[in-house]
Structure formats: C-alpha cells, structure tokens
C-alpha cells in the first residue's frame, strides 16, 4: 500500500522532552511550543492541556528528601554549571552514577512494574537538563566535550546534537502551552511492545523507541497535536486508518505496532532515513531519531535513561517542566 504523505504539523511536546511533544506520524515540522529548546518564531497554538499543578511542577517531597539524604543525587532544580570545566566534571559524575543506578534498578528492582527509583529519575533529569543547556550554548558545549573522557564525550555529543536539531523545529509561545500528561507505562512493558513490533515488522526496536521518545516522551504527553495527530506515537487519523490494523490509536501496544507497520511500508529497515522522513517531513527529526536510536543500540542503559527524560514546554520566558520529580 502506498504510504500516505505526512501532513504539515509542528513538533509538540515530547520533544517536549526538549520541551515539546512532537506532532507524530505524517506531518512536516512546524512551530510548537513545547520543544527541546525551540528557535524563536511566531507562537503556535497550544497542542495539549495539563492541570495547573502539573504546569507549576514543584519538587516532590520524596525527591527533595532523597537529595538531602544523598548529596550525590542532584535535586530536581539543581543549578547547572556554566563553566566548561565544572560542566565536564558534573556530566562525568552524573554519567557514572546514572549507569550504576540503572544497573541497580535492573538487577534489584523491577522495571516491568512501577516507576524508576529516585536515583535513576533524579540523575536522568539532571543529565537531560545539562544536555538541553549545552544544546543552546554550542560554544560552551564544544569546550565541555574537550574536557570529557572519551566514553562520556561521544554519547554527550550525540544527545546534545539530537536535542539541538529538534529545537530548530520548535517555536516558543508567549504563554505556557497546556498539555495533558500522565505517567508512562513501565519501562520494560514498553520495551516488550517495541520488541514485539520488531519481530513482526523487522523495524529495530531502538528506532521505534526513539520515535516514541521524540513524539511523546514515551507516552507522557497524551493530548493530540494542534494538527490532530493522536496517541503515544502521534498518528494523523487517515494514516492510522491505513496502518493501524484496526487497533486503538491511544493504546500503546497498538500504536507501536502501527508505527512499525507504517515505517516498514515506507522503507524500513532497508532505508530508515526514507522511512522516518515519511513519518515526519524533517531531516532534523530524522537525524535526531537516528542519533537516539544508535545510543540505545550502543548501550541499552541509554533506553532506561531516556525513559526518565521529562516533558518541558518552551515559552518566550524560558522553559517549564511539566513532568517528573
């Protein structure tokens, strides 16, 4: 079946992770307000809605108390160093602690149930915030990379580059965008959906996970985009009718299968760039998705770190975080 051409749309909120949730399947980039750090431009209509409490996002008592108990854990609003030497030190330490926290979670916890432990959530959030800062300050980023160990510099540069590319697709709004958000399904439940879709359609699970990361921060953003894209993989209605196989666009398992079906019909796994461009008519989007996918392919711990990246909204007065500790 011939793929349906994507309709124009804006990256919305999971980028939001960047500060907006991407407007998913079948749409080209446009202005959005909740994106990784959007480039200035005319304000776009809010894509989603979230309660006032979520928009204000105070630090939770539990996260704050954990940070007090363990000085190695950054508080949710921990200040980000501006000096490259201190930034490199902070990133190196965060990478080491996050790696260990993820290993502990997978070995001693249960990623198939409930939320991530607070050490994982706090360290991943801090990592994400530092990357977002570096994405907006390329000169500082270059000086920071030069001071990082090779094992940290490569992943940091890849993630910052992906965030910077996504930010070019987003325009801040003058007033905070409203988003409906919710907790994502457990990390290993999502991983099961991705791997099931890979077995059925041959589309690598890391690519599917990267699409969901960019589109809705693993399902945290639940509102449709301002162009009408819906569900955790952000499908336009006509595309869902063609590739959703009769499923529910809001059901995570069905949405992941539909995305794999669409990407396969559009050229994956033979040509991921072509398939992802069909999903979203933006080469910046394609590059960002593939950068994140390669990171997960290199080390599955990156999937668990990305799973804990949060939703931000970009306004003309700065970013606001909608989810997380």
TrEMBL record:
CDD domains per the UniProt record, alphabetical: Slt35-like
One Pfam family it belongs to: SLT
Highest taxon listed in the record's lineage: Bacteria
Record Gene3D superfamilies: 1.10.530.10
Region (Disordered): 27-81
Transmembrane region(s): none
Domain Transglycosylase SLT as annotated: residue spans: 194-281
UniProt keyword annotations, A-Z: Signal
Signal sequence coordinates: 1-34
Keyword Signal attributed: yes
InterPro entries with a match to the protein in the record: Lysozyme-like_dom_sf (IPR023346), Transglycosylase_SLT_dom_1 (IPR008258)
Species annotation: Planomonospora alba
Protein name (database record): Transglycosylase SLT domain-containing protein
Low complexity biased stretches: 27-53
